[in-house]
Design brief:
The chain has three domains: about 160 residues, Immunoglobulin-like (Sandwich); about 500 residues, Methylamine Dehydrogenase, Chain H (7 Propeller), CATH 2.130.10; about 120 residues, Sandwich (Immunoglobulin-like). Helix content is about 5%, strand content about 40%. The protein is globular. The chain contains six helices and 58 strands.
Length: about 850
C-alpha cells in the first residue's frame, strides 16, 4: 500500500527519542548463557478515527523493546508483524507480514470499504536475535550479548476504527498568493511550493524554464543596486559609458536565488567576494570578502599562448551554484541550504572547475562549512529530486556507467558503528574524500557508443551519436536509452539508428570548415523529440525520439542568425530565436507554426535589421527575452531591451529598455544586470499602501462628502512614490530609475470605495481613479443620518499587491419643520422705549411676513418630500 512520505518520516521516529539514548557503540560481549526468553508487550494505533469510507487510515505498530543488535542499516529487525482486521460485516483479513525498522516500529495504510466499526489486533509471533546482517567489518557494535535471546510472542489490545459514510474534510489550504508575498513561507501553506521556485544556477533548468513561479507581467522595478561605476562618464568623454565587463571579465556573475535571497560575485579589482541581498528589497544581508588567498592556498598556472605568466594566481572562492539538500532518514527530516564554490588554486579570470576541491558555505550566513576533495565532476550534471548534485558519466571505453553524488562523501564516513549513519552533519572545517562519492558504477553493453543527451532520474538515460551525412557519405546516427531503475541500471531499454540531416558545410583542406556545420542532437524528453541545427543554412531538423523518424524542418529568414541561433522547448512549443531578432514558435511535434515575434530597432541606433534576441528564462506561460552582445561598442545602442512575450500568442506583454546578461527568475522576480548603468535590477510585484480620509466634522444630511486618499508604491527602490496603472508602467519605471522623461498622460490605479451605513447596510460608492501623483477623491451624498464606516481598497494589479485603509464620518439629521420655521432670537435690548401709535405701514409689513412664512412652509414641505422620495429609493 502507498504511504505518504511525510507521515512515514514522522512515524518512523515516534519511538526513537525513547530508544536512541541506549543505541550506543558497545564492545562485543558474550551472549547470555543460557539464552534469555524475554516477554514483550505489543501496541498499536489507527488514525484518524473516525474516518470516511474510501479514505486511508494509518496503522502503526510497535513493541516495548527494539531489536538490541540494530545499528544503522545493520543488525536485527523484528520480523513477522501481522494485523488481524475484523470488518463491520464480521469477516476477517490479515495484513502483513511486516518487518520493523531499527527501533521496532512498523506501519501500513488501510482503506476501509464499509460503514461501521472495524477492529484491529497487532500480533507479534516472537523472534530470536541473530545480529544479522553484519557491518562490513563483521563486528556487532551494539547488543551483542542479546544474540540467541528469544523475544516471546504478544498481541495488542483490540483497537476500533469507526468508519462513516461522509469523508473527513481535508485541511483547507491557504490560497496561492496573487499579489505581493514574502519569505519564509509558513509550513502550513503546503501548496505554495507551486510558486516559490528557486534558481540554483543558470542552465540547470532545461531551457532555463522555471516551472514553479509566477512571472512578472509588467516592467515594475522592485529595486536597483550598483555593483560598479556605470553609465555615462561625462565631461570630455562625451557619450561613452564606463566599461561593462561584458567582453571577458563579467564584473558581476554567478547569480543564484535561494529562499528569497540573491547571491552574486563581484570581480572588480581589487574588490573580490560575493554578496547576499534580500531578493525583494535589495537590502545587503552580508558580504563574503575573498580579496585575500583562501586558507593561504596559492596556486600556480602557466597560461600558454598569450605571453602572460599567471604563476601564483590567488584562489578566490566564488558563488558557483546553490543547493537545497532534502535529507530524510529515521533521525532527520528536512532541507539544508548551501552555496558551493568550485573555484580552485591557479584559476585566472574568475574561471571555475580548475581543481578538484569544492567548498561548501552556509547559505544563511555565508560562513564556510567544509570541503570535498577529489571531486569527480566529469559527465552530465543534474539536480536529483532530493537536491543532491549528480554527475552521470558514460565511459564507453571501459563499458561503465557511473554516477557521482556530491552529498555521498559527506554522508559516507564509517557511521555504521553509531547512529551517525542516519545523520546529516557536514563537519566544520573538514575536508571529505570525494572518492567515496560514487552512488552508481555499473557495466553497460560493450558496443554502446556516444554520449549522454538527457537524464530522467531513477528512470532512464537518453544517449547516442550524431552520425554524419555530408559529401563524404552517410554514417547513421544512433539513439539509445539505458535504465536507471534500481536493480536494472545500465540495461538497454531501446536502441535504433537514424539518418541525420545532410550537412551542406564544405570540408576544407587541413580540417573542417570553422562555422555552419550541423550541430546536435538536443533532446527534450517531455515532447519526445530531438533536433539538429545547421548554422550555415539556418535550418532546424526535428526528429521523433521513439522512432528516429524526421518529423519536420524549418528555416529562419534572418541572415543575422548565422551568428547565433538557439532553440528551447516549453509548454509543448518549439521556440526559435537568435541574432536575427525574430522569435518563432512551432508545435514541437507537428511543426505547425504558432506565432512570430519581431523586435524593432529605434531610430538609427543599430546596424542590426532587428534587435538580437537571447533567452532569459521561461515561466508562468511567458518567455523573457533580452538583447546583448559579446563586446558591445560605445556608445551603447539604446534599442537593447527586456521583452516579456505570451508563449501562447507571441504577443508582447511588456518591454523596457535594458542591456542585460543571463537574467534569472525566482519567487516571481526577474533579476538582471543592466549595463546601461552597471546596476542590478529586480522586476516583479511590489507592495502598495492605501490611505483614505473623510471630513472630521459632521455634515448635514443631503450634503456631499468628499472621500479622498492616496495609493503609493512601497517597493524598496521607490518607496512612497505614486502607484501607477499597469499600462503606463514601462514609461514610469524608466522615469523613476533611468532619468527618462516623466510620462505626460499617466494615471494612477483604481480604488474601490465602499461604506457601511448606520443601519449596517452596504453602500457601493464606486471606483475612484488616482492621478499621476497617487491622489484620488470622490464626492458622495450619504443617504441617511448617522455614523459611516468607509473602506478604500486597491485590489492590486500586475505591478502591485493590494492594500486598503478605512475611515469614518458622521451625517447629522435634517432640521424639523418647527426648527426650520423658528425665528432667530432677537438681540437683548438694554433701553426702554415708549410704544408708538400704529401706522398704515403696519398692515403692509404684516402682509409681507405672511407671504414670507408661506414661502418658507412650501420650501420645507418640498425638502421633506425630497427626502421621502430618497428613502423610497
Amino acid at each position: 500500500m502507498n504511504f505518504d512520505k511525510t507521515k512515514k518520516a514522522t512515524i518512523t521516529l515516534i519511538l526513537l527519542l525513547t530508544f536512541s539514548a541506549t543505541i550506543l557503540a558497545l564492545p562485543t560481549v558474550s551472549a547470555h548463557d543460557p539464552p534469555l526468553e524475554l516477554p514483550t508487550w505489543a501496541y498499536m494505533s489507527v488514525s484518524p478515527n473516525p474516518i470516511g469510507v474510501g479514505q486511508s487510515a494509518l496503522v502503526l505498530m510497535w513493541l516495548n523493546d527494539y531489536p538490541r543488535t540494530a545499528q544503522g542499516m545493520f543488525g536485527d529487525r523484528w520480523d513477522g508483524y501481522t494485523i488481524e482486521v475484523t470488518t463491520p460485516s464480521g469477516s476477517k483479513e490479515t495484513l502483513g507480514p511486516f518487518t520493523s525498522d531499527p527501533v521496532g516500529n512498523g506501519y501500513t495504510n488501510y482503506i476501509p470499504t464499509q460503514v461501521g466499526t472495524y477492529t484491529f489486533v497487532f500480533k507479534f509471533p516472537g523472534d530470536t536475535l541473530t545480529g544479522l546482517p553484519l557491518p562490513p567489518d563483521g563486528i556487532i557494535y551494539s547488543g551483542g550479548e542479546y544474540v540467541n535471546d528469544t523475544y516471546l510472542p504478544s498481541q495488542s489490545a483490540p483497537v476500533t476504527l469507526v468508519v462513516q459514510e461522509d469523508p473527513l474534510a481535508a485541511y483547507e489550504e491557504t490560497p496561492l498568493p496573487e499579489g505581493y508575498w514574502t519569505r519564509p513561507i509558513n509550513g502550513m501553506n503546503r501548496n505554495w511550493w507551486k510558486v516559490s521556485g528557486n534558481w540554483l544556477q543558470a542552465g540547470d533548468n532545461p531551457g532555463d524554464w522555471n516551472k514553479y513561479v509566477f512571472g512578472p507581467e509588467t516592467a515594475h522595478i522592485m529595486w536597483t543596486r550598483p555593483y560598479w561605476d556605470g553609465g555615462i562618464m561625462g565631461g570630455q568623454f562625451g557619450s561613452i559609458s564606463y566599461y561593462t565587463g561584458l567582453s571577458y571579465e563579467s564584473f558581476a556573475t554567478g547569480f543564484v536565488a535561494l529562499n528569497g535571497r540573491l547571491y552574486y560575485n563581484v570581480d572588480t579589482p581589487p574588490r573580490y567576494g560575493w554578496y547576499c541581498v534580500d531578493l525583494r528589497t535589495g537590502e545587503e544581508l552580508f558580504f563574503h570578502n575573498t580579496t585575500g588567498a583562501v586558507a593561504g592556498v596559492v596556486g600556480t598556472q602557466q597560461v600558454s599562448g598569450n605571453g602572460f605568466d599567471y604563476s601564483g594566481a590567488i584562489t578566490r572562492e566564488r558563488v558557483s551554484f546553490g543547493q537545497i539538500y532534502n535529507y530524510d532518514s529515521p533521525n532527520q527530516h528536512g532541507g539544508f541550504p548551501y552555496i558551493w564554490s568550485t573555484q580552485q588554486a591557479g584559476s585566472v579570470y574568475g574561471g571555475t572547475d580548475s581543481g578538484r576541491t569544492w567548498m561548501m558555505f552556509d547559505a544563511f550566513t555565508g560562513n564556510y562549512i567544509c570541503s570535498v576533495a577529489n571531486v569527480s565532476s566529469q559527465g552530465t550534471r543534474i539536480y536529483a529530486q532530493d537536491g543532491s548534485i549528480l554527475y552521470y558519466n558514460l565511459d564507453t571505453r571501459n563499458d561503465r556507467l557511473t554516477c557521482w553524488n556530491l552529498t555521498y562523501p559527506i554522508w559516507y564516513r564509517e557511521h555504521y558503528t553509531t547512529n551517525q549513519y542516519w545523520m546529516w552533519r557536514p563537519y566544520f572545517n573538514y575536508t571529505f574524500d570525494g572518492n567515496y562519492g560514487f552512488s552508481l558504477n555499473v557495466s553497460i553493453p560493450a558496443d554502446l557508443t556516444g554520449s549522454i543527451h538527457a537524464i530522467v532520474e531513477d528512470q532512464y538515460i537518453i544517449g547516442g551519436t550524431s552520425g554524419s551525412n555530408d559529401e563524404n557519405g552517410l554514417v547513421p546516427g544512433e539513439m539509445w536509452a539505458l535504465s536507471l531503475v534500481p536493480g536494472q541500471e545500465g540495461t538497454i531499454l531501446w536502441q535504433y539508428t537514424f539518418t541525420p540531416p545532410y550537412d551542406t558545410a564544405p570540408n576544407t583542406v587541413g580540417g573542417v570548415f570553422a562555422y555552419g556545420h550541423v550541430a546536435g542532437p538536443t533532446v527534450d524528453v517531455e515532447t519526445n523529440i530531438f533536433w539538429f541545427e545547421e548554422q550555415l543554412t539556418k535550418k532546424v531538423f526535428v526528429y521523433d525520439l521513439h522512432t528516429g523518424q524526421k518529423l519536420w524542418e524549418t528555416q529562419t529568414a534572418e541572415d543575422w542568425d548565422f551568428y547565433g541561433m538557439s532553440q528551447s522547448v516549453a509548454y509543448g512549443k518549439f521556440i526559435m530565436y537568435g541574432y536575427g531578432g525574430v522569435a518563432e514558435a512551432y508545435d514541437a511535434r507537428t511543426g505547425e507554426k504558432s506565432w512570430s515575434f519581431t523586435t524593432e530597432t529605434i531610430g538609427l541606433e543599430s546596424f542590426y535589421a532587428h534587435v538580437p534576441l537571447s533567452l532569459a528564462c521561461i515561466a508562468d506561460g511567458k518567455i523573457y527575452f533580452y538583447s546583448s552582445e559579446h563586446s558591445p561598442s560605445q556608445p551603447l545602442r539604446r534599442d537593447s531591451s527586456i521583452w516579456c512575450i505570451d508563449i501562447e500568442t507571441g504577443e508582447e506583454i511588456w518591454r523596457i529598455t535594458h542591456w542585460a546578461n543571463d537574467p534569472l527568475i525566482a519567487d516571481g522576480y526577474l533579476v538582471a544586470i543592466n549595463y546601461f548603468d552597471n546596476q542590478i535590477y529586480c522586476y516583479g510585484i511590489g507592495p502598495s499602501e492605501t490611505t483614505v480620509t473623510a471630513p472630521d466634522t459632521a455634515v448635514p444630511l443631503g450634503s456631499s462628502v468628499m472621500i479622498r486618499g492616496t495609493v503609493t508604491d512601497q517597493s524598496a527602490g521607490a518607496k512612497g512614490t505614486p502607484a501607477i496603472a499597469d499600462e503606463y508602467m514601462t514609461e514610469w519605471m524608466e522615469y523613476l530609475y533611468m532619468q527618462r522623461p516623466c510620462p505626460k498622460y499617466a494615471e494612477g490605479v483604481k480604488v474601490k470605495l465602499t461604506a457601511i451605513d448606520p443601519n449596517n447596510n452596504y453602500q457601493d460608492i464606486g471606483y475612484a481613479t488616482a492621478d499621476a501623483a497617487g491622489n484620488f477623491g470622490m464626492s458622495w451624498v450619504p443617504p441617511v443620518p448617522g455614523d459611516y464606516f468607509v473602506t478604500a481598497e486597491f485590489e492590486g494589479s500586475a505591478a502591485y499587491g493590494g492594500s486598503l485603509d478605512t475611515t469614518y464620518f458622521t451625517v447629522d439629521k435634517a432640521p424639523s419643520l418647527a426648527q426650520a420655521m423658528e425665528p432667530e432670537p432677537a438681540a437683548l435690548e438694554t433701553t426702554t422705549t415708549q410704544p408708538t401709535a400704529p401706522t398704515t405701514e403696519a398692515s403692509f409689513i404684516t402682509t409681507e411676513i405672511a407671504i414670507l412664512a408661506a414661502v418658507v412652509i412650501a420650501a420645507v414641505l418640498g425638502i421633506a418630500s425630497f427626502w421621502a422620495l430618497q428613502k423610497r429609493k
